[in-house]
Amino acid sequence: MHRYVAPSFKSSAFNCPHCGAYAKMHWYPMSSPIGGFGLFLSACSHCHQPCCWRGIDWDADQEVFDHTIMLIPDGSSAPMPHPDMPEAVKADYQEARDIVNVSPRGAAALLRLSIQKLCVALGENEGSIDKDIKSLVGKGLPVGIQQALDVVRVVGNNAVHPGELTTDDIAEVSISLFELINAIVEERIARPRALEELYLRLPEGARNAIERRDGK
Asked: What is residue 197's three-state secondary structure?
């Protein structure tokens, strides 16, 4: 799976906000930068759906816009939730997606709540997210997943309480937090589920023999 690339103005490829695929983008100017503004369309080479962008504050010397925003769809630059994400987790994740472009700090706080609910979905209920992660580590949680959980936890904490991370720091890593949560869902929910489904497709006799071998 290609690493998620957030939509950005005039980029040659990114994850389409319509279909989610990482795809080449075709750009078309819709107006000239009269009065410092300009309209552009980007078209996804995978689903062919367009996005409408607005350039603001045209720099005639550099021939670039100082600011750009995506007008349509009026969505988020963050990745969509993993299909196997639990519904209780997905609600906060989606709310974080809705506000990340205007409030990375608020999104980080919501993602911390998503992680707390994800720990519960994974069978933990120690009363705090830090204790839940510790419990998961004691049950063999891979180091990479533990670190991902702690990254979201620490950034989320700093988003709510004054800490060492500034607003700019949080904004810089905000999109990565969404990717980390999706990676955790893939590792701890989707992959085990897919393996179990493959195992259950084995003939019953073969499964019984395996279980007798393993003393189940």
From this structure: helix
CB of 122 closer than 8 Å to CB of 136 = yes
- How many other C-beta atoms lie within 10 A of the C-beta of residue 13? 13
Contacts of 98 (CB under 8 A, 6+ apart): 76
Please answer whether residues 16 and 23 qualify as being in contact, where contact means their C-beta atoms are separated by less than 8 angstroms: yes
Identify which of 179, 146, 184 has the alpha carbon closest to the alpha carbon of residue 3: 179
Give the CA distances from residue 34 to residues 28, 30, 54, 60, 67, in Å, rounded to whole numbers and listed in that order.
16, 12, 12, 11, 15
- Tell me how far apart the alpha carbons of residues 216 and 211 are, in angstroms, rounded to a whole number: 5
This prediction has a pTM of 0.67
Q: CA dist 97 to 17, 78, 148, Å? A: 12, 6, 18
**Segment 32-52, tens digit of pLDDT:** 766 667 888 999 999 999 988
